[in-house]
Amino acid sequence: MAKYPLIKATLKERLLSSHYPEGLPLPSEPQLAKEFEVSRMTARRAIDELEREGYVYRIQGAGTFPTGKRFRQGVFRIRPFREWARGAETGTRILQARVLDATPEIAIVLQIQPGEPVVFVHRLRSAGDENLVIEKRYINFEMAGDVLKHNLAVESIHEVLVEKLGLHLTRVEQSLEAVNLRAEEAELLRVPLGTAAFLLRRATYAGTRRVAYVNYWVRGDRYAFQDTFEP
């Protein structure tokens, strides 16, 4: 297995937990190569991907720096997609639905070991003739591998997990942030590269175990999220 995904996943966890102080550079590529016992080129590839995803930035001659804290605010609920597009005919296209081996990154978010099987579901959601939401979902195969026996172009994955597979889902953790679409997402949503969008990350639990982890890319020019709360 290539080593750079493990380095990337480890560094990402450190960045998200503020292990590296804001304003100070990360360890240099030679230092990372020595720590992880890899070549400098492998360490650079991990940093390159973190930079593309917006976790770090480089200053020539100074080093690589954390992009800074994302300030977390409030509690919000986001309803199922079919309720987002009321009044429009919604559709779901399955781009991929298969079993794969967990990469180090996916192993971390599903709290399993690298190489264990996971279900990967990649869907494109639309309303009318517009593509609006991209979904990439990873499901714990041991807990819910039979999800692939269902028609996921029509059925709600949440309903399949609860009503068909009998899982008792107890908790959801989610975050919402603004991003600029990369080439893959922009092409699927048929918008220009770099278009503003929302990235919704969601982890679903059954007891203390994570059943699923999903990323949604939502077009920023078609959706706004709101909440009501007591002042």
What does this structure look like?
The chain has two domains: 4-66, Arc Repressor Mutant, subunit A, CATH 1.10.10; 81-219, 3-Layer(aba) Sandwich (Chorismate lyase), CATH 3.40.1410. The protein has eight helices and eight strands; from the N terminus they run αααββαβαββααβαββ. The chain is α+β, with helices and mostly antiparallel strands and 231 residues long. The longest helix has 13 residues, at 4-16. Strands 3-4-5-8-7-6 form a six-stranded antiparallel sheet. Strands 1-2 form a two-stranded antiparallel ribbon. Helices cover 28% and strands 32% of the residues. The mean pLDDT is 85. α1 (4-16) crosses α3 (40-52) and α2 (29-36) crosses α3 (40-52). A hairpin with a 3-residue loop joins β1 and β2. One of its GO terms (biological process) is negative regulation of DNA-templated transcription. Residues 1-69 form the HTH gntR-type domain. Keywords: DNA-binding, Transcription, Transcription regulation.
Quick summary:
By secondary structure, this protein is of the alpha+beta class. It has 8 helices and 8 strands, in the order αααββαβαββααβαββ.
| Order of SSEs | HHHEEHEHEEHHEHEE
**Quaternary structure type:** single chain
Number of helices: 8
Stretches with pLDDT under 50, minimum 5 residues: none
Going by CATH, the architecture of the largest domain would be: 3-Layer(aba) Sandwich
* Overall radius of gyration: 19 Å
Please give the largest β-sheet: 6 strands, antiparallel
Q: Helicity range of the residues? A: 25-40%
The gross shape turns out to be globular
CATH topology of the largest domain: Chorismate lyase
GO molecular function, one term: DNA binding
Protein name: DNA-binding GntR family transcriptional regulator
Keywords: DNA-binding, Transcription, Transcription regulation
InterPro entries: Bact_HTH_transcr_reg (IPR050679), Chorismate_lyase_/UTRA_dom_sf (IPR028978), Tscrpt_reg_HTH_GntR (IPR000524), UTRA (IPR011663), WH-like_DNA-bd_sf (IPR036388), WH_DNA-bd_sf (IPR036390)
